[in-house]
Amino acid sequence: MYQVTKRRIAILGSTGSIGTQALEVIDAQRECFDVNVLTAATNADLLIEQAKRYMPQVVVIAKDSLYAYVKKQLDAWPIQVLAGCAAMEEVVLRDDVDMVLTAVVGFSGLKPTIAAISAGKDIALANKETLVVAGELIMRLARKHGTRILPVDSEHSAIFQCLSGEKGNPIEKIILTASGGPFRGKDPLFLSSVTKREALKHPNWSMGDKITIDSASLMNKGLEVIEAKWLFDLDADQIDVVVHPQSVVHSLVQFEDGSIKAQLGLPDMKIPIQYALSYPERLKSDFRRFDFKGFPSLGFEEPDKASFRNLDLAYRAMNLGGNIPCALNAANEIVVAAFLKDQIGFLEMSDVIEEVMAKAAFVEQPKLEDYLSTDQWAREWATKLVTKNKILHQTEKNG
Ligand code: NDP
Ligand code: MG
Description:
Blueprint: E1 7-12, H1 17-28, E2 33-40, H2 44-54, E3 58-61, H3 67-73, E4 80-83, H4 85-91, E5 99-102, H5 110-118, E6 122-125, H6 128-145, E7 149-151, H7 154-162, E8 171-178, H8 188-191, H9 196-199, H10 209-216, H11 219-232, E9 239-243, E10 249-255, E11 260-264, H12 270-278, H13 310-320, H14 324-340, H15 348-359, H16 368-398
Parallel strand pairs: 1-2, 1-5, 2-3, 3-4, 5-6, 6-7, 8-9
Antiparallel strand pairs: 8-10, 10-11
Helix pairs in contact: 4-5, 5-6, 6-11, 6-14, 10-14, 11-13, 14-15, 14-16, 15-16
């Protein structure tokens, strides 16, 4: 049994799906964790409620205009209130923070993660977009500062767990499992008219809107392929994807002797969240247990890359390297937001991403500034393409 001293946690994105589940984990393990920082973008009321319950040293509300409201509500409490995106980069540097859980969504995680790594804090990484955008830079900084990056994403946690005790044994390949999402087995004709309501109904996981759409379009798996490349130092041909609709086998590692190890469990993000927070200890939990009797058969099938083009686009971006995955990520954030506003069809999301990737000016060895400018350029270009698309739709409807 390990002797853990209390770990002091900063949760970036505490009001989201991962953030709230992390607080549930911490609730059940109060003797192991203190929450010293909580942050949200706009959900001020939930942030205030969390602050009163967990008594962090500081909270950050990213949207500046909500500062006065949060400050007033927490006036009688010994909790510092900060506002703005830059404040997320400040709070991770605090001496009373040992570990930062990055549970914000999208590119917004990049700068605070870089700040936390540079300050030598352990990272429990949920925000996969950070590694997609700047994996080379992030891993280089982590090595330089001796920072541990502990995966929260269930597939990467599975691989991380399979690698335990395997130091010195090279990975032959990894196999990432994918549920296939709500549209598994559907053809492009069907996909051309799916709505956001249908896309938001994930069969196995309850998650934030952005990752739920990414799961429906297989972009989530594409992002995870790139995430795995950086976390486990792999080449493209060492990363396979298999569709496994039950989401019980969370991923697998094949070693050079042909042996395969897998990690299993019910689809419950609290397990990988807790493992990252308590690593290397496994804390006793009352999470629901897997029972084979409830799963008489587990299925595995090839992903349908012809209908769901995002997976290949992500492999292409990864193979091209440099700033191209950053362009892919930015374009994807724009098209997902547009799809959620009914401004673009499901299949058109891939068209826009492909065009943005094709037009991006290639930077082979990007620095932070290159990632920032690529992100901005790709967002603008993708927005233009979405707008063109909207006009086209309108003309078709009217004609
Ligand atoms: P949610 O949308 O549920 O939550 C996002 C959190 O980040 C919220 O607290 C939100 O605040 C905050 N936030 C959003 N935008 C910004 C911004 N620009 N600046 C600062 N804070 C911001 O997302 P999820 O919890 O689903 O996902 C979080 C990350 O974890 C993603 O990268 C996702 O890919 C990854 N992940 C999620 C899984 C899941 O099961 N949900 C599984 C594996 C990985 P507010 O509430 O105020 O808007
Ligand atoms: Mg995942």
